[in-house]
Design a protein that fits this description.
Layout lengths: L2 H19 L18 H19 L18 H16 L8 E4 L4 E4 H23 L7 H11 L27 H8 L6
Antiparallel strand pairs: 1-2
Helix pairs in contact: 1-3, 1-4, 2-3, 2-4, 4-5, 5-6
Length: 194
């Protein structure tokens, strides 16, 4: 897969999150999300912060933790989220982005841009599922997006140091042999496809 293919797949996953959130109504923002203890508003604040953080990392400022703080989404959470989408997609569209070093404090280091864009792709494939499930609407991720995100999910460390409370990922759930690529990806990140 070329670098431009990777950034295009990431953009597709991010655009899907935007499509899903476009239908959210005022009462939906307080719904419990698939992320324990978070409402849809909390989840979207996290997603917004991740966009700003990854955009900062793409431009060499990822070590500044202020970029990674979830904003107050105010009275128009969709507009705030939409702005963060424009920000990260513009940063990822810059020439040579996959060749840069990305400092990602939550993951404890600096990674190649290609790997960092892969992390972001996985994050937005999964968070799009979170949003779709929370809102009770269908997810529309093309198979190439799911396949690319699954490849990243398979490389996420599975040891307890990287999984569970306080870690970026929940423990891996069992994956049935007949699981779809999407279901396998979700289970690898500790989400039950059911």
């Amino acid at each position: 897969m070329t670098d431009s293919d990777l950034t295009a797949l990431d953009s597709t996953a991010v655009q899907e999150s935007l499509r899903l959130l476009r239908v959210a109504r005022e009462a939906d923002w307080n719904r419990p999300s698939t992320c324990a203890g978070w409402t849809l508003r909390d989840l979207v604040a996290h997603m917004t912060a991740q966009h700003h953080g990854f955009a900062a990392a793409a431009r060499g400022a990822g070590a500044d933790r202020t970029y990674w703080i979830g904003p107050d989404l105010g009275r128009d959470p969709f507009r705030i989220y939409e702005e963060s989408v424009r920000h990260v997609l513009a940063a990822f569209a810059e020439e040579g982005v996959t060749e840069r070093g990305f400092t990602l404090p939550e993951l404890g280091g600096t990674f190649t841009g290609r790997l960092a864009v892969g992390f972001h792709l996985l994050d937005y494939a999964v968070h799009s599922w979170d949003v779709a499930t929370t809102l009770g609407i269908g997810l529309d991720l093309p198979r190439p997006v799911v396949d690319a995100a699954l490849e990243v999910a398979r490389r996420v460390p599975k040891d307890p140091e990287h999984r569970g409370p306080g870690a970026a990922f929940a423990p891996v759930l069992p994956t049935p042999e007949e699981a779809s690529p999407l279901d396998e990806m979700l289970a690898l990140l500790g989400r039950s496809p059911r």
